[in-house]
Design a protein that fits this description.
The chain has helices at about 20-25, 45-50, 65-70, 90-100, 150-155, 185-195, 200-215, 220-230, 240-255, 260-270, 275-290, 290-305, 315-325; strands at about 5-10, 30-35, 55, 80, 85, 105-115, 125-135, 160-170, 175, 180. The chain has 13 helices and ten strands. About 45% of the residues lie in helices and about 15% in strands.
Amino acid sequence: MKTKLSLCMIVKNEEEYLPKCLQSVRGIADEIIVVDTGSTDSTIEIAKRFGAKVVDHKWRSDFAEARNVSLEFASGEWILVLDADEELPQETRNKIAEVIGTLGADGIEVLVRSELPDGDAAIYDETKIVRLFRSKKEYRYVMPIHEQIRPSIEKGGGKIFASDLVISHHGYSRGNVQGKENRADRNLKMLYNALSISPDDPYLHYQIGATLMSIGKRDEAYDELKKTLALDYAKLSGATLDKLFMKISQLALERNDYGQAIEFAEKSLQQNPRNVISQYVAAIAYLSRNQIMDGYRLLLRIRENQNSNLKLGKQLKDLINACEKALNV
């Protein structure tokens, strides 16, 4: 018997992205729940055209609260959560029914692959996050921004399994959300509000640091990320720890603190051996300390990865050539 899957979304003024998102779940989602928080464009009409149940809900500057409203209206045995600027690739569409049929799983971790702007060193960012989970009243989102379902699943004793499912995310390539509001400004305001309530939350400090880094406030970002390390950061997920260590290593490299750049790049790689940015940062730091062989080995490791996420193709080639000349290989 087929497991019923509910797609749950929150939206506002997403007419540009929503059709592609909903088209990608046709034949996959048995029902679509769309919580609209005040659209003034054709978002609601588009959602209804795809057969969605649209729920009007006043925006209260709390993503978890809005997500949880969508869950209240879902009747499926499993929930899939997407944003309007995301979609399911065909490979994920083919596998999703099999994955949610996994015995014993209460939550499924998927890979959200986000396109990055042209100026970034990476082609895309990858984050492991629970986006598929059983529909249970005790499973509800927490955190007003960068909301998470994982804590409630774990609190309820549920088991979370990893998967190779991928969600494609296009939103980080644009600076605005819902086509108007600046993403960083909105996020920082919400994060600082949350921090005033939970000042020792390492996840909030990490997200503030990451946001500051994204808008070029590198010194402030470095200070904020280092604050995270002074708190109970070990309780953060492996995916978050990977990003935390990677960002500190990048900022340390910019400060010519090569020892710290290597230390935190290696910590990142312990969490995620495929993190090509951390590999590259460590390689540059080693070369800067004249540890040519150590840097060369990392550069070769990047080159050997046929699906490398690094945009710096020419720089990589030139560095490898320089290393081989210095090492006479």
